[in-house]
Design goal:
- With 178 residues, this protein is mainly beta.
- It has one domain: Lipocalin, CATH 2.40.128.
- Helix content is 11%, strand content 58%.
- It has one helix and twelve strands.
- The chain has a ten-stranded antiparallel β-barrel. The chain has a two-stranded antiparallel sheet with strand order 10-11.
- A hairpin with a 2-residue loop joins strand 6 and strand 7.
Length: 178
């Protein structure tokens, strides 16, 4: 009879260490609390039309499910646009968050792996914010699309497909300030 104690014991130890490691990792938003800075590039079609300094501040509050969430566009410029929002953890397990703009506007934010996605409509525009989270950076993408389809295809024997041509695109690579 072969003794399987050592391989079984090592497997058990590896599982315990892995569980402790995974359990000890912070999840968003705690994992990305801090000040993040970069340059927002604004595109109109193929052309980059503008660059402006951008900052994102994420800070814990006294409530465990609420964070300060501040977006600043045009950092240190005369026309600086500071947006003081609140980030509410709706369901951390499901990766559901709410951005409270503190003016009766609430935006849903959903986590898929290392991406946070918010999609909403303002007037005649659909807007998508996509934040890709890395340990040392946050990549931000903003897409603006029309509400009305630009054209339709398919139909009949195949599903109808509505096509929405992008109106604008913005991106930024934010790095944590030390």
């Amino acid at each position: 009879m072969k003794n399987n104690f050592l391989p079984t014991f090592l497997t058990f130890v590896i599982c315990i260490v892995y569980t402790i490691y995974i359990g000890g990792q912070e999840s968003f938003p705690n994992s990305h609390a801090g000040v993040w800075v970069g340059v927002l590039e604004i595109y109109n079609g193929k052309e980059r039309t503008m660059e402006i300094p951008m900052k994102l501040e994420i800070a814990a509050t006294s409530a465990s499910d609420t964070f300060q969430y501040v977006l600043v566009y045009g950092v240190d410029m005369p026309n600086e646009d500071r947006r003081d929002y609140i980030l509410i953890v709706e369901n951390e397990t499901q990766g559901k968050f709410i951005i409270d703009e503190k003016n009766t506007i609430f935006l849903g934010l959903r986590q898929f792996n290392n991406k946070l996605i918010s999609h909403f409509q303002v007037g005649s525009n659909q807007i998508s914010y996509i934040y890709t989270l890395y340990s040392d950076e946050i990549d931000v993408e903003v897409w603006v699309l029309p509400v009305e389809a630009d054209f339709e295809s398919g139909g009949g024997q195949v599903p109808t497909v509505l096509n929405f041509e992008g109106k604008a695109y913005q991106r930024a690579k934010l790095t944590r300030m030390m």
